[in-house]
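Ticket #4471: structure export looks truncated?
Reporter: QA, pipeline team
Priority: medium

Steps to reproduce: submit the single chain below to the structure queue and open the exported record.
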Amino acid sequence: MPQHPQSVTFTATLSPVEGPMIHHVIIVPQEVSATFRKEKGAVRVLCSVEGKEEFPCALNPRGEEYVIMASKQLIRKHRLNEGVPFSVSVRSDLNDGLELPEEFVEVLNQDEYASQCFEALLPGLKRSLLYYIRSAKSTDTRIKRSLQIAEKAKTRQLYSQKNKD
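Actual output as written to the record:
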């Protein structure tokens, strides 16, 4: 198992953003974002708010700074409020946000072609599909979703695959 790098912890506040999609961000101090950046663009990290369970996210460029998008779900779960400081820890995501649920691993182990088709997808689509599987509460639902995604990947029924034809 790969060794995970040390976390970097900083104090942040929730910052409002004007726009239809994202309403709040967590501004990452420049010295923290510089630790993780290798080139331009977003950097995948694992994040923890107030020492609670880690979740995959990205350090996204926004002007001269980097931010973490704060979803309504994240704000509600951690009871974050504008102007109230909280601690954030980030560390490199060695899996690039692509940690496979065990149910999906089993499906791919049993179907080589589905595994090849999944590997050919773009990382962002993979992350979305894996999130969809992981978000199911029951094992049975995660298995069902895993089988559905494998079948759609093989028959080129995923949205991005349809647009390539």
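Status: closed, not a bug. The export was complete when the record was re-opened. Leaving a note from the reviewer for reference: The chain has a mean pLDDT of 84.
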